[in-house]
Amino acid sequence: MKRNYCLLLFSVLVLFILSESSAICQGWTDLRIRLLPDSSFAVVEVKTGKKIRHCPHHDSNGKIDEEQLIYVLGTLDRETWLDPKNEKVARKHLENHYDKFIAKVMKKGLHGSVNINRAKLTQLVALPRIGPVLAVKIVKYRNMHGLFEKIKDIKKVQGIGSGTFNAIKHYIIAN
């Protein structure tokens, strides 16, 4: 009897895990994402009974994970949508959260330098002219190519030209 109950419970768990499509995430395991409630996502699409949940940014307690929020905003163009209108809905939802976050960051201001070799997404977006897309590109570049030796090496990141570099050069270090 106990064995049958365990088998049934395992089967239900497997069905739950296989019935939902996983979203793009940074540092969250696939299982963690699958166990999140639908309210943790910007948009949930349904196609023939299968859920596709997009842009997770709340943890299991409903609290916004700011790193994840920035990551999903910075990678929104990689999502595949059943209905293209849902991308606009998701973007608006995420940008509302981001606007509240960045307003708090700007109110505090920058204190000290931002180390471009160790900075989290939340620290990178505090820099002038660096939004979620560039912040994600900086982290991805750093992960693929190693640490920046000099601050001017950040110009190797696609999208960071002389104008952006001149806006951030007095706020960053690379040691």
Distance between the termini: 61 Å
Q: Determine the strand fraction and express it as a percent band.
A: 5-15%
C-alpha-based Rg, rounded: 19 Å
**Backbone shape:** elongated
Query: Helix segment count?
Result: 7
Would you count the extended β strands for me? 5
Question: Taking strands numbered 1, 2, ... along the chain, how are they ordered across the largest sheet?
Answer: 1-3-2
- Indicate the low-confidence ranges by residue numbers: 6-23
Give helix % range: 40-55%
Overall pLDDT score? 87
In brief:
The protein is 46% helix and 11% strand.
Outline the structure in words.
This protein has 175 residues and is mainly α. The protein folds into two domains: 2-106, no CATH class; 112-173, DNA polymerase, domain 1, CATH 1.10.150.320. It has helices at 2-18, 30-35, 66-74, 85-108, 121-124, 132-145, 162-168; strands at residues 20-21, 41-47, 50-56, 114-115, 172-173. The termini are far apart.
Defining key terms:
two-stranded parallel sheet, Helix-hairpin-helix domain-containing protein, 7 helices, 2 domains, RuvA_2-like, three-stranded mixed sheet, mainly alpha, Endo/Exo/Phosphatase_dom_1
Topology:
Layout: H1 2-18, E1 20-21, H2 30-35, E2 41-47, E3 50-56, H3 66-74, H4 85-108, E4 114-115, H5 121-124, H6 132-145, H7 162-168, E5 172-173
Helix pairs in contact: 3-4, 3-6
Organism: Candidatus Desulfaltia bathyphila
InterPro entries: Endo/Exo/Phosphatase_dom_1, RuvA_2-like
Pfam family, one: HHH_3
